[in-house]
Amino acid sequence: MLTLFPQLLDYQYFAPTFLRLGLALIILAHGLPKLYATRALFAEWLKSMGFKHNHFWTWTVALAESVGGGLILFGFLTQFAAAVLIIEFLFIILWIKRGQPFIATAAAPGMSWEFDFLILMGLLALLVLTPGAYAIDLPL
Prior knowledge:
Layout: H1 15-35, H2 39-48, H3 54-74, H4 78-96, H5 114-128
Helix pairs in contact: 1-3, 1-5, 2-3, 3-4, 4-5
């Protein structure tokens, strides 16, 4: 294999670990506030989006992100957690952010879905890769 830094290939087993830890921190940073501080605001936002049973969906999303992020962080049931979160992020991209541009523009700052797409791609990678080093799934 042609590479500039062949000595780094000795550590390729850590690549999924870095991906797992980065995704877990992002997902937990979005999920934990929905369990505590911003749960009522999130429920009202869901209601304004036309969701019926908004409190059910608030708890579903908050638990999926918080528990799923925690499972991914520790590398336990990584593929299951990734699959659940993939469903959530597909829903976000195809339903919630439908009609928004891929990349934010000056006319609509913050109204894009490239970050959600990046998280989705990382979750898809975790679905097909091993959880990497320092994972509870590893010995299973």
